[in-house]
Every structure is written in structure tokens, then in C-alpha cells.
Amino acid sequence: MSNIPEVKLGIVAVSRDCFPIALSTQRRKNIVAAYKGELYECPITVENEHDAIKAVEDVKNAGCNALVVFLGNFGPETPETLIARMFDGPCMYVAAAEGDGDMINGRGDAYCGMLNCSYNLGMRHLKGYIPEYPVGRADDIAGMIADFVPVARAVIGVKNLKIITFGPRPQDFFACNAPIKGLYELGVEVEENSELDLLVSFKAHANDPRIPAVCEDMAREMGEGRYFPEMNQRLAQFELTLLDWAEAHKGARKYVAFANKCWPAFPETFGFEPCYVNSRLASRGIPVACEVDIYGALSEYIGACVTADAVTLLDINNSVPKYIYDEEIAGKFDCKLTDTFMGFHCGNTPECKMCESRAIKYQLIQHRLLEPEGSDPDFTRGTLEGDIAPGDITFYRLQCDSEGNLRSYVAEGQVLPVATRSFGGIGIFAIPEMGRFYRHVLIEKRYPHHGAVAFAHCGKALFEVLKYLGVRDIAYNQPKSLPYPTENPWA
Fold first, then answer.
1. Helix, strand, or coil (residue 89)
2. Domain of 34, in residue numbers
3. Half-sphere exposure of residue 225, counting CA atoms within 13 Å on the CB side?
4. What backbone torsions phi and psi does residue 400 show, to the nearest 5 degrees?
5. 362: helix, coil or strand?
6. Three-class SS state of 407
7. Looking at the domain assignment, is residue 29 inside a domain?
8. Segments in 384-488 forming alpha helices (H)
9. Which residues are CB-neighbours of 419 under 8 A, at least 6 positions away?
10. Do β-strands 311-318 and 450-454 pair in parallel, antiparallel, or remain unpaired?
């Protein structure tokens, strides 16, 4: 995953000057010893603003891009919160629990200090990641730091992301036409281009000397009999076009995602469907969202940062037929029919997340629309199709509504090991209480049909990322015992 940040953590201890500084210093050392990963230990224990300046300079010089601010005792409210202002990266605030010394000279009162720390962060409009229960002994805080890493990775990624688009957002998929104001508020840059720009660049890559190596890699990845050899050169040419464009156009940004128009003009003009190439880039941490879905691209990228793994973008597409449910699901899996649905897209899901039967095929719907009736598929080929591999997933999306407000949803579930009996890149998903979630979140709050999929249960980290980014409306699939505000109690 070459397109996501590497988190380099540092820890800074703070100490109220009327408490023993040794409490914070020793407790910091205990955390460093307990943490299993790489953690730079700042030697400066912060008691005042001058200390805070020196500590931030020290961790920056050490290459840290995320920071743990540790209240080893009550802590100095102003200096500890100003660290978040001076440090250009996400900061986590945690506090020491008692129990490693006597309760007269060895009591630190960090439980109390954490309240004032949070209060001061709010007064100064500064962001800090505070765990669900931010007070603990060394091993507890080591666990909190491990939870902080994927959150920090996503926050750093978003702040350094450019989303590159090609083509106008399609009229018939108006749901993808969300205001981009929210992206700028998050610190994301956007570069919008014409499909003609992409075509010119694609033609310039004809006979690129790197094409044969990419073709070989595609053949190795798919396996014989699972791709169209005569198309590989065109697909490789397109892959190199996107990668070179990303490198040449990222500018001051470190990371890139794409949101590209892929129909109806694309396949006839370029001579193939781009889905397989999109899937290959997604497997490297470079999402390529379909249908110029800019917020879909951002959502995918956040998931890639959180999981450090490939993600995908799918339509929340169709219900599972009752006959498939009765034959393959009922009595075998703990889910109702309304908990299930099929997630589908033409063929953009990375091959590593699909069943062994996956293969490069043609887009059936586009073939109906664009090619002569009864003809063999030609330029509508290029989709990566097959059932999505079973396993844990998190379905989620960050979106901007028509008023310019950011909102999101997160729901954990699974892909069932049940054949879809359908076409495209597709899977049967099961999410607890999906039917109610579909009605009272997805429909009620007017979300589009695209959802991002991370191939793990990562709702906890995604929830914290979204909170840190300032998203106030974070919906989830509520249990039956917790009705939605719009849910009819007599239904």
C-alpha cells in the first residue's frame, strides 16, 4: 500500500509544576516499555509553554507525524493543549491511572486533569483524539496507542490528499453530484479534468516501454484463461496513464485518489472498460471511484488508511431473492431476509478480495446499451467479475448533503459464503437490522447508492476518524431495541 501514510508516533509527557515531575517521567517510560510498536520518547517533560515549544521541536526533528500527549499527573492545562496547536499532526490525549505509588506523594490526579484538558481543547477549538476511557496504567495506554495508529493514519492521509477527477459527474447518477465544499473544509484538494485530457494523455502513452511488464503482471495476477490477451496492452497503457498523471499532478500533496467517469462514452472511445485497471490501483491504496463519485473516492481512501488494505466501492444494489435466502441462508446464518442485500459494481473490486472464480469479462448492461444487438462483446470488455470472497466487512460512507453539511454512516457485517448466481463484481452482504438501517438512515438521510467497503470490522476506528474530522452526524445500524427518531413505533 504505497499511497497511504506511515505513522511515526511520539509520546510527550506533561506535568503540573505543583506535582512531582517524576510521576509523569517514570510513567511515560513505563508506557514506552509496554508498547509493542515504534514509539519515540520525547525526553522533555512539559511543565510550561517554553517546554511545550521545545518538546514539539524535538518530536518534529525526530520525524514524528502523530503524537501521544500523556498526563502523568494533573498536567498544565495551557501548555498541554497548545501542543495540539503547535504540532502539525493528530494528537491523542490520555491520562495516568493511580496505583503505582503511595497515595500521598505518589498520587497524580490525572483523572481530574483530563477534564480540564478536554475543556481547554474545546475553548481553543483544537482537536484531540480522546479514547472512550482515556485513563489507564501503562499496558492500558499501550493498547489505546495501538488503537490510535489507524485513526492517525487516516487523518494524516486526508489532510494530504488530492482527489483527481476525469469527466463531468453523470446526470443520470445525480446522487454523485454532492457539493465539494465539505472536501475543502476537511483539507482535501480536488483537481477536476475533462475526459479529453485523459484521452490525450492515454494516446501519449502508446508504445510506452513499460507496457510489456505491466501486461505480464496482469497475466500473472489473473491466471491463464481468465483475461483477454489482446486487450492487455490497452489496459496496461491506461494503468500507466493514471499512475503517471497522479505523480505529475499531486503537486504539494502526498497522496492521490481518483474519481473517474467510466460510461457511456469511455468504453467506445478508449476501446475497453476501465474496471480491471481501477481494481489494480485500489489494491495499491489508490482508489478509483466509479462515476466521478468524489465522496466515494474519499470514503474508500479513509478505509484504505484505517485498514492498510484494499477497499472497494459498491452499489447497495438489490435485495436477495427469497428462494436464495430459503435455500442457502435460512437456518445456516443468523440473519433475516431483510438483513441481507447484494452489493454490486461492474468490476472494480481488487482481485485479492474475490473468489477464485473471478475473471475479466464484459459489462452486460453497457453491452446492451452500446454494442449492436446480438454482437459479441468488444469494447465493453474489461470488467473484473465474480463473487466477492466471504468474510468480515464494514460498509460506510462520508457524504456532503445538499446544505453543505458532512454526514456519514458506518455498519459492520459480513459477506456470506453464498453464490450470488448473478453477474458483475458482486456479493451477498448481511448487516444486522439492515432493513431498518436502509429505511431510516440511507433513505431518510438521502444517501446515494454507492457505499465504500472495508474488508474487516473496523467500525471503531472509522467512527473515531469521522469524529476527529468534525463529522457530527455519524449513523449506524441500530439494534431493534433502539428505535430511530423517524421509525414508526406502531409499524
1. coil
2. 9-158
3. 2
4. -110, 125
5. strand
6. strand
7. yes
8. 434-437, 459-468
9. 328, 387
10. antiparallel
pLDDT value for 174 = 63
DSSP label of 447: -
Residue 7: left (phi > 0), alpha (psi -120 to 50), or beta? Answer: beta
Query: In the listed set 126, 158, 190, which residue is the last one of a domain according to the structure?
Result: 158
Identify the segments of the chain with pLDDT beneath 50: none
Indicate if 154 and 167 belong to the same structural domain.
no
Residues 188 and 136 grouped into a single domain: no
Q: How far apart are CA 77 and CA 55, in angstroms?
A: 16
Give which of 38, 302, 35 is closest to 159, Cα–Cα. Answer: 302
Measured at the alpha carbon of residue 152, what is the angle toward residues 149 and 158, in degrees to the nearest 5? 140
What pLDDT is recorded for position 171?
72
3-state secondary structure of 53: helix
Q: Which helix (H) or strand (E) holds 323?
A: helix 322-324
Last-in-domain residue among 158, 180, 199: 158
**Spacing of C-alpha 9 from chain mean position:** 20
pLDDT at position 309? 97
* 131, 202: one domain: no
Residues 164 and 75 placed together within one structural domain of the fold: no
Q: What is the CATH number of the domain that holds 81?
A: 3.40.50.10940
Q: How far is the C-alpha of 394 from the C-alpha of 392, rounded, in Å?
A: 7
* Residue 220 neighbours by CB distance under 10 Å: 9
Asked if residues 393 and 442 have their Cβ atoms less than 8 Å apart, the reply is: no
- State pLDDT tens for residues 177-235: 788 899 999 999 999 999 999 999 999 999 999 999 999 999 999 999 999 999 999 99
Task: Name residue 317's amino acid.
Answer: N
Task: Decide: helix, strand or coil at residue 240.
Answer: helix
> pTM (2 decimals)?
0.96
Same domain membership, residue 456 and residue 350: yes
In a domain, 488, yes or no: no
d(CA 183, CA 381): 34
User: pLDDT tens, 321-361?
Assistant: 999 999 999 999 999 999 999 999 999 999 999 999 999 99
Asked if the peptide bond before residue 432 counts as cis, ω within 30 degrees of 0, the response is: no
Regarding whether 167 and 132 lie in a shared domain, the answer is no
Backbone angles phi, psi at 114, to 5 degrees: -65, -35
Residues 6+ apart with CB under 8 A from 376: none
Q: Cα dihedral sign for 283, 286, 292, 293?
A: positive
Domain assignment present for residue 486? The answer is: no
How many domains in the chain?
2
Question: Within this chain, do residues 212 and 306 fall inside the same structural domain, yes or no?
Answer: yes
Joined grid coordinates for residue 160: 494530504
Do 190 and 252 lie in one domain? The reply is yes
- Examine residue 397 and state whether it is found in any structural domain, yes or no: yes
